[in-house]
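2024-03-11 09:14:02 DEBUG pipeline.ingest accepted 1 chain
2024-03-11 09:14:02 DEBUG pipeline.ingest length=307
2024-03-11 09:14:03 DEBUG pipeline.predict start
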Amino acid sequence: MNNYVLTLDVGGTEIKSAAVGADSIIVEETISIYESKSSSSKEIILDNFGQIINNTIGKFDQNTKCLGLCLAFPGPFDYENGICYIKGIGKYESLYNVNVKAEIRKIILSKYKNHFVDEFGIYFENDARLFALGEYISKYSEKYNRVVFITLGTGVGSAFIENGEILRNDKRIPPGGYIYNVKHGESTIESRFSAKGILRLAQEIELTDFESVKDLAQAARMGDLRAFQLFSKYGELLGLALKPFLERFKADALVIGGQISKSSDLFLDKLKFSLGDVPVDVLVSDESYIATFLGAYTYFMKRKGLI
């Protein structure tokens, strides 16, 4: 086959990876899921990246070269320079202030140089942005011009796309396109609508016997009225919180992804109702990591000037 890009979706618990070849074709036999080891030492985490590289290149013959890597990484992170600034959440803290880009380059040059093109690239970008880019290109580009993407999970990710381009600095959106740190009442959008936010909301209505959003969703589907009401309230509040962003951006569509989106059947109707007369289609992503691979490939190729 033609040369390929190694794409990584780096999460706090898992790292998903795949090789993506010409015309955005994901090489299915390379799709893999690894333990992130994000609570480990710097050396163990970097060695884990090296093993992922090794496992992927081992599936190709010597004549097929890797063009480089694109990593979808959570923040805070200096994406341009590849420096990690994550701390205080128990994930990747040993990489704080580490130039991850330089460390991965060292690994490649010392062990795997012959499997890469001479001018290989290493790029980082926010995980929600790359998910959004991949989703837009693969599903929505022919129907919508302006789309807001939200990922709901351990955090709240966001991206604003207009005509296939990720917006970062635009008067119609918050700085960087990030809504997680926007004030919401006495807290922030992330603290209110992430997994911890749902569990906090559950405690407020004395639903204290559940340890995860998944458990709460299962209870709601099995007829637990208070659990069902919890998700209804969550959808109502989420819709009210997102409404100003959608109106200001004049979005054509809102796409929801992330782990919590798997429970969208419990809160989507209330979310839509809260949006009122905002003329926006509300959609749910079904395969966020596949979208992230495609977004990472596209971002890499654009940065290298290959598309």
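2024-03-11 09:14:41 DEBUG pipeline.report The first helix runs from residue 42 to 57.
2024-03-11 09:14:41 DEBUG pipeline.predict end
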